[in-house]
Amino acid sequence: GQSLEQPSEVTAVEGAIVQINCTYQTSGFYGLSWYQQHDGGAPTFLSYNALDGLEETGRFSSFLSRSDSYGYLLLQELQMKDSASYFCAVNTDKLIFGTGTRLQVFP
Amino acid sequence: KAGVTQTPRYLIKTRGQQVTLSCSPISGHRSVSWYQQTPGQGLQFLFEYFSETQRNKGNFPGRFSGRQFSNSRSEMNVSTLELGDSALYLCASSMGLAGGSDTQYFGPGTRLTVL
Questions:
Q1: Neighbours of B73 (CB within 10 A)
Q2: What is the H or E stretch that residue B41 is in?
Q3: A97 vs B contacts (CB less than 8 Å)
Q4: What pLDDT score was predicted for residue B45?
Q5: How far is B21 from B109, CA to CA, in rounded Å?
Q6: Are residues A105 and A96 in contact, defined by beta-carbon separation less than 8 angstroms?
Q7: Partner-chain contact A42 B108, CB within 8 Å
Q8: Cα B98 vs. chain centroid, distance in angstroms?
């Protein structure tokens, strides 16, 4: 089957940098996506890696290594509003989501 | 451009009843996917509709069904509700491009509680 594992929770302070890892056991996917979901809200798209390497979008960067079956989301200059759940997902003919990581940012 | 809308936002039903949820995609998007989100199972794919046809299906029982109309609006139906069907049901729309690289845009979800 296909599975994506993430740490359940990460904590950090404002201004810091945090990395959320995603390891997967799947094959034949088009790319790796990252979504943010605030409590009670809808998942919102953050980033997509079709190829290996780093993609940068403002304070957020995402990385994919297919040879290592691994990806990560890097959040820089953390703000309180970044407190949310973050999901990686592989793009096949559908999105298969990871287990999700709850990020708590403290002042 | 208006985002994905879902109605109703909250729903309370009892076991054995059926329910219909509605999703209006972003204008111009032809694909609508449905997901179930629960604390225990996370986000799980239910099915995808494209041009009024079911294009993909997840591993859910036949009690879960859906359809799509010519204006791309979609409905999902759950019959004979069980307690375990309590969840947040999310729909997501995309252009529907082949290859799975489409960005999916999610609606706010319908919170279904089965008593």
A1: 17
A2: none
A3: 35, 42-44
A4: 94
A5: 10
A6: no
A7: yes
A8: 20
Per the DSSP assignment, residues forming a β-bridge with A44 are A36
Amino acid at A2: Q
Locate the chain B residue with the closest alpha carbon to A100: B42
Q: Of residues B1 and B65, which shows the higher confidence score?
A: B65
Whether the predicted pLDDT of A32 surpasses 80: yes
| Pair of tokens at residue B23 | 């999703």
* Cα–Cα distance, A86 to B4 (Å, whole number): 20
A33-83 pLDDT tens trace: 999 999 989 999 999 999 999 999 899 999 999 999 999 999 999 999 999
Contact criterion met (CB below 8 Å) for B86 and B17: no
Q: How far is CA B52 from CA A52, A77, A90, B37, B109, in A?
A: 35, 44, 25, 24, 21
State the Cα–Cα distance between residues A34 and B92, nearest whole angstrom.
15
pLDDT on residue A33: 94
Give the whole-angstrom CA distance, residue B36 versus residue B17.
Answer: 18
